[in-house]
Amino acid sequence: QVQLVESGGGLVQAGGSLRLSCVVSGRTFSNYAMGWFRQAPGKEREFVAAISWSGATTYYLDSVKGRFIISRDNVKNTVYLQMNSLKPEDTAVYYCAAVRYLGSVTSAQAMASKYDYWGQGTQVTVSS
Questions:
Q1: pLDDT at 1
Q2: What DSSP state is assigned to residue 53?
Q3: Are 39 and 93 within 8 A, CB to CB?
Q4: Nearest alpha carbon to residue 47 among 66, 29, 34, 32
Q5: Who contacts 3 (Cβ-Cβ below 8 Å, separation ≥6)?
Q6: Which of 34, 111, 106 is nearest to 77 (CA)?
Q7: Mind listing the pLDDT tens digit for each residue in 61-116?
Q8: Phi, psi at 62, each rounded to 5°
């Protein structure tokens, strides 16, 4: 069983930054591609970013390209989401997810159904 625990959410003004972290335990972290998703009230869960097992490839939602950066530390079993230039529309609960996959990440990893394990989520609120 794989456990994922997110942290780092909070309240920030528009234009500000936050860094989310997701610590993974229970399996060999480096065997898993990782993704970040978000869900705003009344909306469906939305893909944000994904990173391959090695960190060599990443894939982003168009609206966060150039503002968000996904990274990972396979020694610390942690995946990060650095969020800069935050906008009110980024307000959501952010979830990290894991899938056992050793290839490059592409648009295929933008589908929530690809992921086997999920964290409990962390709230990000961006005020205008």
A1: 85
A2: T
A3: yes
A4: 34
A5: 24, 25, 26, 117
A6: 34
A7: 999 999 999 999 999 999 999 999 999 999 999 999 999 999 999 999 999 999 99
A8: -55, -40
